[in-house]
Amino acid sequence: MGGRDEEAEGVGEATIPLLRDQHDEAEEDGDIVVETKKLWRIVGPAIFTRITTYLILIITQAFAGHLGELELAAISIVSNVLGMASALETLCGQAFGAKKYDMLGVYLQRSWIVLFLCSILLLPMYFFATPILKYFGQPDDIAELSGTVALWVIPIHFAFAFFFPLNRFLQCQLKNMVIAILAGGALVVHIFVCWLFVYGLKLGVIGTMATVNVSWCLNVFVLFTYATCGGCPLITWTGFSIEAFTGLWKFAKLSASSGIMLCLENWYYKILILMTGNLKDAKIAVDSICMSINGLEMMIPLAFLAGTGETVIKAVTDLSFLLAFTILLNSVQPVLSGVAIGSGWQSFLAYINLGCYYFISLPLGFVMGWIFKFGVKSIWAGMIFGGTAIQTLILTFIVTRCDWDKEDAKIAIDSLSICMSINGLEMMIPLAFFAGTGVRVANELGAGNGRGARFAMIVSVTDSLIIGIVFSMLIVFLHDQIGWIFSSSDTIIKAVNDLSILLAFTILLNSIQPVLSGVAVGSGWQSFVAYINLGCYYFIGLPLGFVMGWIFKYGVKGIWAGMIFGGTGVQTLILIFIVMRCDWEKEAQKATVHVKKWSVSNSRN
């Protein structure tokens, strides 16, 4: 047993250049260049992998688009992904950092068992897709064809249960380049098979789904062969073990927390699809919005990883930040309220105040102050971020929109499709940082190095934010030109121009929020963030989107603005606050205990 441990340690030191020595001088000095190189070694291949995976969906929908509008809408609405594999990221990442290499293979097998069983439990969603979609108001023709396509998604559904754990298993061992090369090969094969099935064999919409089955199953087979037949060190894959069937309940609970956290976020955007299906020209609405959002949904489980932050923030610093933010808000909000009063909108403003202050702000302040035990400062933060900030955003949006002519719903939806396509493609970059930060943070926490985990998060968030700012500024500067890439219609180009500010703000938020959400997985906070997602998305974002879209008649743009400002925006602010207050040295100690607890049964054997 001792010889095996020495071998593991020797191989680990030789093959894990990304792990830091806690006494390394470069780490103590916070060498940004060194950390950036380590991060980009993971992020670079991850960006390529996510873009190629995203393109598999886009190419499938492009071929389907030549079959007809209905077929494309059907394919767009049926895809569903499983997010529970993120539990493997927490355990494998921390075990690898703690040099418990022999546990990685056991965790992988446990993840396969749990996800396979969960995939069976989710099968009714596919068998009864047609009545479910009809219940949520989708047109009969789309619902019927979606039900047919859903049956052909089942093989992909099970392939995901094996692919994502394999992806996490290899990623935690820094095998990102292997994953990227295999993803590129799968894309090439997918293009050829798509052409063969759709044009050569004339298989229609069923043929397009069959191509996705072929591509994903091939990807799973190659990854499985690589991981189990010598591609990984023998110390991480020691063969199939009966131990994989032990501790399944604990593993399932962590997986369930991960799945709930991610599904709440995933379903939040799917509800946008269902809500839009009830607008004018629903076929086009489902077609255009799903075309991009579903691609984004496929990427979420590929990257639900981690970041980290600093906790030791003095009380004065906390209060000065809140005070400055409050002063900034109060320099805008009273002026906008004056506009509302001067325009005779008092009743309208009263509803806004009631909703923001008493249905968002007070509950948020209570939850942060008493439920999560963050004290008086968090009560203030919750009420400011949840009340005054949301009210200011709503008033800003209404004031800037109040004199505009009402847009035709079809034009608005088509322009939203273009914006979502741009956002979905750019989203691959922060999701890659999401993955890279997860590996870095989980490794550092597993090694007992809280300071290194914090520093890795700071570098990742900074890099991702810089890229997000660049893309947001490009959208702002090229707002009147980006529509030309997708359409030659002057009306649609004008509508895209109208949405460009929302798009820029969404891209900016998405450069921060995925990395911060990943803290939950890298640190094991899935249950905690699940509550945050539930509150932000379903008690703030969705009601706000509904009010803006239907009550105040702003249509698709109002739905999008409400869900972004009320859901993702508030979630990002809360996560920033939590990350700033976290004690990362304590989290490192927890991770060390956690890894020992999970591996104790293995050491006994």
Automatic annotation (TrEMBL):
One of its GO terms (biological process) is xenobiotic detoxification by transmembrane export across the plasma membrane. InterPro entries: MATE_euk, MATE_fam. It comes from the Eukaryota. CDD domains: MATE_eukaryotic. It is a multi-pass membrane protein. GO terms for molecular function: antiporter activity; xenobiotic transmembrane transporter activity. GO terms for cellular component: membrane. It holds the Pfam family MatE. It is found in: Membrane. The chain crosses the membrane at residues 47-66, 72-91, 112-129, 149-166, 178-198, 284-307, 319-341, 348-372, 378-399, 411-435, 455-478, 499-522, 528-552, 559-580. Keywords: Membrane, Transmembrane, Transmembrane helix, Transport. Belongs to the multi antimicrobial extrusion (MATE) (TC 2.A.66.1) family. This is Protein DETOXIFICATION. It comes from Brassica oleracea var. oleracea.
